[in-house]
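Good day; I would like, with your permission, to put a structural problem before you. A protein sequence and the C-alpha cells that stand for its backbone fold form the material at issue. The record follows directly beneath this note:
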Amino acid sequence: MNYAVIYCLACFVLCTVSIARKFNSGNIECVGVDALNVTKKQLFGVFFIFLAITFLLPTLLQALLKALPLNLNLSNANLDLVVGGISHLTLLGFIILIYKKLHLKKMDQSWTFVLKEGLSCFGAVLPIVLLTSCLWLAFLLFLNKCGLKIPINEQGSVVLFTKLSGFLPKFLFLVMVVVLAPIVEELVFRGVLYRAFRRELKCGAAAILTGVIFATLHFSAISLLPLLVFSILLAKSYDHFGNIWVPIVVHGAFNCNSLILIMLFQP
C-alpha cells in the first residue's frame, strides 16, 4: 500500500472541499482584530525577549550542557532537540506572563468551531503555499543558473527532524513543532506584532510587514517567499474570525503536514 499516494489524495480532497466551502461561506461575518495599544518601547522589549529566548538561550544551553560534567550520552541531534524544547517551553512561559496584557478577545466560538474553521482554512491555504513554493524554487534555481549563488537550504527544524532516530525523539519533536511552536509564534507574530503594526498601518501593510519578519527569522532562502505568503494568510484568518486559536490550528496543521511529507518521502 502506497501511503504517500493515499495521503496526497486525502490532502487533495481536503483542499478541494475547503476551497469550495470558502466560496460558499459568505454567511460567516468578518469579525476583525483590534489594534494592540502598546508603546514602541514595550513592543521592542517583547520582541527583544522573544529573539533572546529563541536564538541566544539555545546557544547558552548547549554550551552549558557540554561544559557540565554530565554523562548525558546524547547525539548532537538529540541535544538540539532538548535545547529546542527548553527554549519553546521558556517562550510559552513568557507568553503566559504577558497574556493578560495582550487583551485578546474572549473566545465566543466553541472549540469544535475553531478546529473546523482552522482545518478548513488550512485546506484552502495549502495549495497557495505549495504553488508559491514551486514558483519560488524555480526562480531560485534560475538565479543560480544565471550565476547568483543563492544557497537553497532547508529550515533548521527540517534538517533536525531528518537526523532524529527513534520513536520518542521524533514524538517530542512533533509536539514541539505542531503544538508549542504554533502557539508561541502566533501569539507573538499575530497576537503582538501584527496588532501593534495595525495602530499605524492598514491591515494589508501590517500583514506584509509581519510576514517579512516572520519569514526572515526562519533563515531559509527556499522558504522565504512561501513563509511570507503563509504569514499573510494567517493574519487574514485571524482578522476574519477574530480568534487567535484559528491561525494557531492552521499553523499547527501546516507544520504537521510538512513533517508527514518528510516521513513519507524521506529516503
